[in-house]
Amino acid sequence: MNFRYPIFLDVSGKKCLVVGDGREIAGKVAALLEAGADVVQVTAQAFKAADLADCFLVITDQPDNSEVFRLAEEQKVLCNSVDDPEHCRFSFGSIHRQGDLSIAISTNGRAPALAVRLKERLQREIGPEYGDLLALLKTVRPEITNRIPDFSARRELWYRIVDSEILELLRAGERQAAIQTMRRISEETEAGLR
Predict the structure, then answer these.
(1) Based on the domain organization, do 86 and 100 belong to the same domain?
(2) Which of the chain's ends, N or C, has fewer CB atoms near its CB within 10 Å?
(3) How much is the pTM?
(4) CA-CA distances (angstroms) from residue 80 to 56, 83, 85, 110, 174?
């Protein structure tokens, strides 16, 4: 196993098959549904090869995942077998989310407990203000792109915003002051280009 290629997937509207009823399956189903997947769940006893037709990915959690994995490989369907890395093409990292910010941690399947502890550390250090900042940046991004067409100047502006006191203002609950600071920095950058 070599889970060294990190990726975030858009599964919205994609058929995702879940096989089995192991202890982690409910969480996997919930996460897929939250991401907008079209989830089909079958028990291990009811699984048949035809269930994989038109699937984007499959998650399986049963005592022996080898047959689901073999069939998934044949049909070129991504497969994750819970706690069975030899029968996986992808693994789930430990995820910390704040709004649109997602930080994934992987130990390449070697030490999931370490990934969990690192996630807990990040949860203490990266709070909801980061999600708030992303929400603000999302609203101003089109305007900044239109008003500052030069890529280098725009990149410098993004770094000035991220490195400013805006996060501290958001952490203190001063959203309006954060917005004003963002506007001031943007206007200064735009004025410097004239």
Answers:
(1) no
(2) C
(3) 0.82
(4) 12, 9, 8, 16, 43
Residues 145 and 186 in one domain: yes
The span from the CA of 114 to the CA of 125, in Å, is 17
Rounded to an integer, the average pLDDT of 42-70 is: 97
pLDDT single digits (tens) 115-152: 999 999 999 999 999 999 999 999 999 999 999 999 99
pLDDT value of residue 183: 94
Secondary structure of 36-86 as H, E, C letters: CCEEEEECCCCCCHHHHCCCCEEEEECCCCHHHHHHHHHCCCEEEECCCHH
In this model, does residue 108 exceed pLDDT 90? no
- Phi and psi at 107, nearest 5°, equal -110, 20
